[in-house]
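#struct-help
A.M.: can someone run this one for me? Single chain, 241 residues.
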Amino acid sequence: MVASPDSAPQTAASSSRPRRGLLIVITGASGVGKGTLRERWLAGQDVFYSTSWTTREARQGERDGVDYVFVTPEAFLEKARQDGFLEHAQFVGNHYGTPTEPIEAALARGQDVVLEIEVEGAMQVKGRMGEEAVLVFIMPPSLTELRRRLTGRATETPERIEKRLARARDEITQAHAFRYVVVNDDLDRAVGELQAVQRAEHARLRPEAEWTAADREALRLADTVRSTALTPEDLARVVES
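D.P.: on it. Structure tokens below:
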């Protein structure tokens, strides 16, 4: 389980009920580097990383049940009809969805849950879970850099890349819908900011009198990547560069 700061002593009645884990949702444009960030950020942590279902074909090196659960469109739609997804969305012709049951079980046992999903799905989670969902938008330093990363992957046609860029432009302009925005232009800094967000959100679940110096530093750093700190000019610079 994610190491969290010491909590206040529990009574015998409450000791059998662990504090509910955090639900952290990271999202952002394809090619922005979510997967690399997630792996570095969560290294050594016993969080529950939800594996999404998808109807798209596996890319080279992807493993079924690890990167995604790859299913047929028929199997996906049947799961959706049974209300088996916390969120699901269609993106560039493929379906993506997050199964509900394992997430609720992990949160109830006090384990942090991390979802890496599309923006539309993140908005669904926010609508369903409210403020319990900690939404983090991973932003590229510029659309030019995002284009370079997508082209360098060599996994999609030019037409699909243009569709992804157009969608990314729309998503970036809506960054204030998320609690935090982390710009992925320096991997070490971005990982540090995600770590600070996680620790800060744990601290906010406890009385301020229990906060440690490390908690307060995490809270200070997390506040610097609050979406409210971004101006319209900041967002315009990203989409126009």
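A.M.: thanks! The beta strands are 23-28, 48-49, 53-54, 69-70, 85-91, 94-99, 113-116, 133-139, 180-183.
D.P.: also worth noting: The chain has nine helices and nine strands.
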